[in-house]
Design a protein that fits this description.
With 839 residues, the protein is α+β, with helices and mostly antiparallel strands. The chain contains 18 helices and 43 strands. A hairpin with a 3-residue loop joins strand 22 and strand 23. The longest helix is centred in the middle third of the chain and has 42 residues. Keywords: ATP-binding, Coiled coil, Cytoplasm, DNA-binding, Isomerase, Nucleotide-binding, Topoisomerase.
Length: 839
């Protein structure tokens, strides 16, 4: 051997070039399919994942059935892991524990003895302490396993055989549901009521062309082991039709008003919600003051059922707090349905009918194979019985033949040759006991043969038609229903009662303030006690330098506010979206609430509870232009606002009013002119139209207000200096639209009219000054005077201050006012400079 030959390697490895991208793709797909099929997604036929199936099969094999003593969980886990599932004891024990938890499985498959955890999330005891055995329902999934009904495959080391699927008399996938996360897909299937599922499958067997809507009359929706309430049926329909849907599930809570204090008592919680964490979350919300009105919270649950008691304060609103609990805690949860299951070794999303169809197909196969097995065994036994009876009829000859043989094999061959028997019959004759020769024993053999022949005929009849097999499936399901069905636990409501923000806001009257620089806030109406005419008022708002309150009105917290700007645009706002402030707070800039343009400022705000086509908005501009538009043209809110009316150059929108279209109105200007005319003179227009002349005025005068004439009321006029009066409407004779009207009030120097509106004696008014001082007084205390008088002092103002906003309170809006609020002293200033008296 040369030196070169000695240096060459003895073995040259073979290198195969591989595209790394293709290799990674192929390997990952193999891994993904292994996880999907072999671990995380249930088989559509028996509704089990491999670990569940192997656990139940191992318990069945070791005789750990419902009628036998319990066995230690550790022994069962070891058997499963050692024979069929070598993936760690933790996953196997967790699987067995879950199948034994009444709050996890609608139809439990394992009967556990010991601590198997709780709905509070407590962990189960170690497997060495707990004991288990199969429940009768689980045995219905395993029955007929020995009759060659399903395929068996080698276990992980090919030393044993395990079933690839269980015979499953019950549609376990629909009854217990399933959830699992695989690679790229996940399944989450809800449980259902056993009785309803059996009835639905039976209906499908009788009517294969049935629809989902017909099945929902029988099986209206999921039935969770923890009860609860499913809100609405849309999510159920979507899941049953397409295999995907979303359910809103609420716990069951009732308001108890029988005791000294109101209570909210929770008796059921949504499926898969941890009770302890729910209580902890409620406590955190109370501590953070996100939910107010709860004084105590305790868990009174025991072996008889769940009971969470929430004590409320005396002034708390129970329904409002319950709405907060639904909105902010897991007391209302979403259950997202996605029905992924393995069908012919492929993951598929299935609706209700395909799920039932796959179960029925599986049962047809199982019953066919079971019937063929039973028929074959019966025929084999009848064949043996015929041989035994033939031997008994010829017993002397049989005995002689057997005695003549030297060995058993010779005897068997002699019997076969002499009596036309086969090996099986001859073997049975050789094993026959002498007691079989008795007459009664012979009759037993005859009866057994006849019974088996009758059974064979039934099996032949069953196998002759698929309709017969479907009828057998239906019969079995009805038997199982009678044996295991129980009452539905989960309620289903017709409509989804979504908790929207207004359900979390108390429905009450509030005072809304808007400043000239467009700062806004709302306050409780009863923040201002009733005072006598001439009172000094209280601080109502803290304002910036140069700002002053421009509008103040009463609205309900659930009302819509239509905010009209100086440029004639309209924006929508909910009252509860306006931040609540104290009497001293300045509020929030309205530009943070509305998408206003740079040149816009809000000049009129109208609270609206509903938008009606037979009611109208009357728009009045600073230069006296007027227009009427139906209210329903503003019924569709837009975040960017809409054009309400068109304006001439230099004009601004100053007043908007709601009308029914049949009113007489009065327009009032800053310098004391008022014009009365009928609303019919105002043409009806659509949004974004240009108005017509409503009132003519002097060049330096501007319009300040507009009101309708109401029977039993007067025109209440308020000036910026704090004076006011009531005047009979009869003193204002009607003029045509577009005229200048008549004098309304005698004004002091540098004074002007803030507003003039229709007011009744039973009403109250709230005045707010530019410096934020607020006073509240009764309209009845303001005297009735003629048009040319100055009026009486309603509010005493500090030097340089002036009235800028006025609103009225109807008797209904005064209900929240305490009757024991003290009345302020009335100040009588005597005759004014024009000779009129305050009184």
């Amino acid at each position: 051997m040369t030196s070169e030959e000695s240096q060459q390697p003895l073995f040259v490895p073979k290198v195969n070039p591989v595209n790394i991208e293709e290799e990674m793709k192929s390997s990952y797909i193999d891994y993904a399919m292994s996880v999907i099929i072999g671990r995380a997604i249930p088989d559509v036929r028996d509704g089990l994942k491999p670990v569940h199936r192997r656990s139940l099969f191992a318990m069945w094999e070791m005789g750990n059935t419902h009628d036998k003593p319990y066995k230690k969980s550790a022994r069962v886990v070891g058997d499963v892991m050692g024979k069929y599932h070598p993936h760690g004891d933790a996953s196997i024990y967790d699987t067995i524990v879950k199948m034994a938890q009444p709050f996890s499985y609608r139809m439990m498959l394992v009967d556990g003895q010991g601590n198997f955890g709780s709905v509070d999330g407590d962990a189960p005891a170690a497997m060495r302490y707990t004991e288990v055995r199969l429940k009768r329902e689980a045995e219905e999934l395993l029955t007929d396993l020995e009759k060659e009904t399903v395929e068996f495959v080698p276990n992980f080391d090919e030393s044993l055989q395990e079933p690839s699927v269980l015979p499953a008399k019950l549609p376990n996938l629909l009854i217990n549901g399933s959830d699992g996360i695989a690679v790229g897909i996940a399944t989450k299937m809800p449980p259902h009521n056993l009785g309803e599922v059996c009835d639905a499958v039976c209906h499908y067997l009788e009517h294969p062309d049935t629809t989902v809507y017909e099945l929902m009359q029988i099986m209206p929706g999921p039935d969770f082991p923890t009860g609860g309430i499913i809100m609405g049926t849309d999510g159920i329909q979507n899941a049953y039709l397409s295999g995907q849907g979303k359910l809103t599930v609420r716990g069951v809570a009732e308001i108890d008003e029988s005791g000294k204090r109101n209570q909210i008592i929770i008796t059921e919680i949504p499926y898969q919600v941890n009770k302890a964490k729910l209580i902890e979350h409620i406590a955190e919300l109370v501590k953070e003051k996100r939910i107010e009105g709860i004084s105590d919270l305790r868990d009174e649950s025991d072996k008889d059922g769940m009971r969470i008691v929430i004590d409320l304060r005396k002034d708390a609103r129970p329904q409002l707090i319950l709405n907060h609990l639904y909105k902010h805690t897991a007391l209302e949860s979403t259950f997202g349905i996605i029905n992924y299951a393995i069908v012919d070794r492929q993951p598929k999303i299935l609706g209700l009918i395909p799920l039932i169809e796959q179960f029925v197909r599986h049962r047809i196969t199982v019953i066919t194979r079971r019937s063929e097995f039973d028929k074959r065994k019966a025929e084999e036994r009848v064949h043996i019985l015929r041989g035994l009876l033939h031997a008994i009829d010829n017993i002397d000859a049989v005995i002689t033949t057997i005695r003549a043989a030297q060995t058993a094999d010779e005897a068997k061959e002699a019997l076969i040759a002499k009596f036309s028997l086969d090996e099986a019959q001859a073997g049975a004759i050789l094993q026959m006991q002498l007691r079989r020769l008795a007459a009664l024993e012979k009759q037993k053999l005859i009866d057994e043969r006849e019974q088996l022949e009758a059974e064979i005929r039934k099996l032949i009849e069953l196998l002759s038609s698929e309709d017969n097999i479907r009828a057998e499936i239906s019969r079995e399901l009805q038997e199982l229903r009678e044996k295991y069905a129980d009452k539905r636990r989960t309620q289903i409501t017709g409509d989804l009662q979504e908790i929207v923000r207004e359900d979390l806001i108390p429905n009450k009257q509030v005072l809304v303030c808007l400043t000239h620089q467009n700062y806004v806030k709302h306050m409780d109406v009863d923040a201002y006690r009733v005072q006598g005419r001439g009172g000094r008022g209280v601080m109502g708002i803290s304002i910036k330098d140069g700002d002053y309150v421009e509008q103040v009105f009463v609205a309900n917290t659930h009302d819509h506010l239509l905010c009209f700007t100086s440029t004639g645009r309209a924006y929508w706002l909910r009252v509860f979206d306006i931040p609540e402030g104290s009497r001293q707070s300045k509020g929030k800039a309205i530009v943070n609430l509305l998408d206003l343009r740079s040149e816009e400022r809000v000049t009129a705000v109208i609270p609206v509870q509903e938008f009606s086509s037979d009611r109208f908005f009357l728009f009045l501009t600073e230069r006296g232009m007027i227009i009427k538009i139906p209210q329903d043209e503003f019924s569709r809110p837009r975040s960017t606002g809409v054009n309400a009316i068109s304006l001439r150059e230099g004009d601004n929108l100053v007043h908007v009013m709601v009308s029914d279209g049949s009113q007489e109105i009065i327009i009032t200007t800053k310098y004391g002119q008022s014009l009365r005319f009928h609303e019919e003179q105002i043409p009806l227009r659509h949004r974004n139209a240009l108005g017509v002349i409503g009132m003519r005025m002097k060049d330096d005068d501007i319009v300040t207000s507009m009101t309708v004439i109401e029977e039993g009321k007067h025109l209440l006029t308020i000036t910026s200096s704090g004076y006011g009066k009531r005047t009979n409407f009869d003193e204002y004779r009607g003029h045509g639209r577009g005229t200048m009207g008549v004098r309304n009030i005698k004004l002091k120097r540098n004074d002007g009219i803030v507003t003039a509106f229709s007011a009744g004696p039973e009403e109250e008014i709230i005045l707010m000054s530019a410096e934020g001082i607020v006073i509240r007084t009764s309209v009845e205390k303001i005297t009735i005077q003629g048009r040319s008088t100055q009026g009486v002092r309603i509010m005493r103002l500090a030097a340089g201050d002036r009235v800028v906003g006025v609103t009225s309170l109807s008797p209904e809006e005064q209900k929240d006012i305490s009757d024991d609020i003290p009345q302020a002293e009335i100040i009588d200033e005597g005759p004014d400079e024009n000779g009129s008296s305050d009184e």
